[in-house]
Amino acid sequence: MLFFVNCFLLITLANAGVIGGGGVVPVVGNGLIDAPVEISNIVEVTKHVPVPIIHHEVEPIPHSVPVPVPKPVAIPIPQPYPVHIKVPQPIAIPVIKTIVVPVEKPVPFPVEHPVPYHIEHPVPVPVEVNVPIHIPRPVPVKVPVYKVVVHHGHYGHHGYHGHYGHHG
Fold first, then answer.
1. CB 15 within 8 A of CB 39
2. Sign of dihedral through CA atoms 29, 34, 39, 43?
3. What are the CA-CA distances from residue 6 to residues 1, 3, 11, 113 (Å)?
């Protein structure tokens, strides 16, 4: 305990500028504290100074009580459900091209038409045949007799009308 107080005073004086003027040299103690201290007149720097420590008088250094610090809990953020939407792709329609291949037309083979045979028709020969011919008797025909009216005077501008005339 005495060692800690001496080191504390030495460091405080050095920081305040009371002891100074030289470089910064580490002070080596009993392995508990290594602190850089500005010193000027000290020559033996690494000399161990025995400090009597009585164990039954040593007060325990109070340690901080561990307080559970709540750690951030990783909350899963709901991601959007991957929905696969079928994008209509253009369908490749096979285009059938009509390719005109020049084909040599066959020369028509001359077909010989058959010559028609000359058929001789028989010559008509008059032959006397006794066939009774029916002669119809005359049938009396009734002919209507029209009465002809003769108009005296002029016949009008249309001429003679016969019995179909309208007026004389």
1. no
2. positive
3. 9, 5, 9, 148
Q: Which residue has the tokens 């066959």?
A: 106
Residue 165 neighbours by CB distance under 10 Å: 14
The burial class, CB within 10 Å (0-12 / 13-18 / 19+), for 5 is exposed
Token digits of residue 74: 């990783």
Cα four-point dihedral sign 94, 98, 99, 103: positive
Q: Which of 37, 45, 33, 47 has its CA nearest to residue 2? A: 33
- 158: number of Cβ within 10 Å: 8
pLDDT tens digits in sequence order for the chain, 168 residues long = 544 545 555 555 555 554 554 444 454 545 455 555 555 555 555 667 777 666 666 677 777 777 777 787 888 877 777 777 787 778 878 778 888 888 777 777 777 777 777 777 777 778 777 878 778 788 777 877 777 777 666 555 555 555 555 554
